[in-house]
Amino acid sequence: MTTEPRTQDAWSALAEQVRTWIADDPDPRTAAELSALLEQAEAGPAEADESADLQTQYDAAQVRDARADLADRFQGLLQFGTAGLRGAIGGGPHRMNRAVVIRAASGLGAYLLGELEGVSPAPKVVVGHDARHGSADFARDTAAVLTAVGIDVVMLPPQLPTPVLAFAVRHLDADAGVMVTASHNPPQDNGYKVYLGGRVVTDSGQGAQIVPPMDGAIAAEIARVPSVAAVPRAAGGWTTAGPEVEDAYVTQVLALADRSEEARAAHADLRIVLTPMHGVGGATARRVLAEAGFTDVHVVALQAEPDPDFPTVAFPNPEEPGAIDLALALAAEVQADLVIALDPDADRCAAAVVDERVRLATGAGAAAADGWRMLHGDETGALLGSVVAERVGSPGATASDGSPVLANSIVSSRLLSRIAAAAGLRHAQTLTGFKWISRVDGLVFGYEEALGYCVDPASVRDKDGISAALTLAGLAARLKAAGRTAVDVLDELARRHGLHLTDQLSARFTDLSQIPETMQRLREHPPVLLAGSPVMQVVDLAAGSDADRDGLPPTDGIRLLTQDDTRVIVRPSGTEPKVKCYLEVVVPVEEHASAETVGEARRAARERLNAVRADVAAALGL
Question: Is 183 among the catalytic positions?
Fold first, then answer.
């Protein structure tokens, strides 16, 4: 949190800024919240003599805390970038609230009108929202602002998944889309994703989230908004869509499923545990699975319905420890074949399977005893990539300029590039974030290790947890019918391409200034050994030549490569106050190695990965 103003003049200037914002705030709740903080901040002096009684010192501390809170809320307008807006809900320009959203919508409207000036018909924008606190109000304000300046707005039904909105941008040939969601962020947050398509973006990024320079251009228009009062808002006039958009999305997703009688029998024999993690993907996912013939689906009851408070999880992200514990417990209870977990806006998908090699004697019916483990994002990416490669590839062929492309981010496993090459497909790596992956020319599959998968880029130019879930379920059903499992497929990939094992180390910071300091320390003093293997290459992804960076645009990150092909990439998170380290080791495996031998290689890789983790943590001073 920003410290309180140190001088009386600084405090007076801030207090006047707060009063001006309150007068312009369209939401009585956030206006009252700020008024109460301002009253507390002006309740007395911010300093107390050491000889003062405890009550006086306590009162002064309360004043300082209120001033620091206001200083944090008014440190500037919440930054609009390639992730749109995302932040804590509350009053003030550095929070998510109606005033900030109205300004953002006004800036987006001005940008669209400028880009399509003189072009008929008027720009079209589709707007959707999740079930988070404030989402419905933010979506309605967006529709009101855009409609008032003559933009054609289509509002989706309440509480639909983000992939439905991303689908709708292309399906409705919209020039832009707005999704109000904070995805997998904590319950106190909300956010605002912007997609561009139609006549504004016409290349392979049509329907994808914004990237530079569009984000900067929209941000510049937002900065020109003088006040909320100056922004016109219509009382109505936008179109409210019925179920037809979601219906079209479901139909498109179902086109990915094998609908043969044999497949439907296999689907009906697969027992799935599903959790939407208190988000908005449950109903749509259940519908897709049911219509594809997956009739044995058990939903985690405590997490089945949308709930903006996410009461059963500390952090509503399937990657976080403990987030899918309820799903694993149910899987052990019902003896399921597959666990699928969606994040709250259903653009991410996690999977868990039984791995005989990790069975523990911890009690009958327990998930650990039964060998349940969550697949790493790279493992799921490899499985889905293999499915797509089998569908569109030509094994043994050499990729040409016109070959379809499998793509993943630079922090994701290198295994996908080997899968692509073996299938005669091209591979591309991109900067982190689906806004880059989804723009790849010729894309047929893309993923990032943070549980984001795009298996149908022609329809949804973004990650889509529901279509990924259906594809995973189809694979699991085919494997079960053949007496095999997803673990068997991962072992086969290890035999063909080497055992690729990945993991992540991250550090969360409350003092954001420590993030650039940590990155600079690594640049100046990179490790010379990782798990005993010499570091042969250190690439600063913010500089360096195009060859060093594989032709990627500059990004804040450092890549280390060792003699034994271990790779480490360190970068600041784009959405959280974290420094993230992405670790990958590769262990050769004989082509005809037994399952036991592959298991031994996996254990050896884990030991090496743990040693790499310790060395990276030491290098970062964590």
Answer: yes
